[in-house]
Amino acid sequence: MTMTNFGKLFKVFNRSKFSAVNQLMLIELAAIAVSLIWTLVSGHMSQMNFLGAVSGWSGLVYIVGFVLIARQAEMAFTRDTYRLIPAKNVTFYVANLVSSLVMFLYLILLQVGLHLIGLAVAWRKIRSELGGLTMSHPLDISAGDITQIGLTVTLLVLTVFVLALTTVTLIHLTISATNNFLPVAGKRVVDAILYIVVILLVMRVGVFLFAQLNQVMTTLNVQGLTNMVIPLIGMLVVAALESLISVFLMKRWVETVAN
C-alpha cells in the first residue's frame, strides 16, 4: 500500500482548520462592526475606536481560535475519515501538528493586519501622543530592538501554542486508550484526574506566558529576552516528549470512531 506523504496530509488537515479560522474572522469582523455602530450611535466615535475594537476582541479570538484548531486536530486522531488515510503514524501526527501551527500563525497574521489598519486610521492621534511622551520621557529603544521584541513574543506565543496542543492531544489519546480497558466507574475517575492535570498545566503555562509578556511589554528590556531561551527550550523538549508518547498511543491503543 502506498503511504500518503507529508504534503498531501498537510493539505487535508488544513482544509477544515482554514475554514474554521475564516469563519471565526467573519464573526470577529461582525463584532467589530457592531461595536463601531454602537459607538457611533452613542456619540463617542473617534480615530481610536477601530483600533480599540480590534484590540478588545482579539484576546477572545485567540482563545476561540485555539479551541477550534485544537478541536479539528483532535478529530483527525480519532475519526475514520482521517485515520483510514494510509500514512505512517509519525507523518500523520507531525503533519497534523504543523498544520495546526500554521493555521494559528495565519490567525496571528490576520490579527496583526487588523491592528495595522487600526494604527493607520488612528496614526495622527497616536503620533501626537507619542510626540508628547518622548519629549518628557525619551525612549532609549531602536527599531531593531522593537523587531527583536516582536519576534521573541511571537516565538513565545507559538511555543506555548505547540505545548498546549501536544498536551491536549496527549490527554485526549490517553483518555481514549484507557477507556478501552476500564469499566465505566474507572473511566470517570481517570477522566477526572486527567482533566484536573490539564487545568493545572494550562494555568501554570498561562501564568508563565503572561509574566514573560508583561516583562517584555512594560520594560522593553531587550537584554532580558535572553532569560526566555531556557524556558522556551524546556517547553519544546516537553512538547517533543509528549508527541513521542502520543504517537505510541496512536499505534498501540487508540481506536477510531465512525463519523
Description of the molecule:
The protein has 259 residues and is an all-alpha fold. The chain is 83% helix and 0% strand. It is elongated, with a radius of gyration of 22 Å. The mean pLDDT is 78.
Q: Briefly, what is this?
A:
This protein is mainly α. The chain contains eight helices and no strands.
User: What is the N-to-C succession of helices and strands?
Assistant: HHHHHHHH
Identify low-pLDDT runs. Answer: none
Q: Approximately how much beta-strand content do the residues carry?
A: under 5%
Q: For the report, how would you describe the main beta sheet?
A: none
Number of strands: 0
Portion in helices: over 70%
Rg over alpha carbons: 22 Å
- The number of helices is 8
Compute the separation of the termini in Å.
24 Å
Key traits:
8 helices; 83% helix; 259 residues; elongated
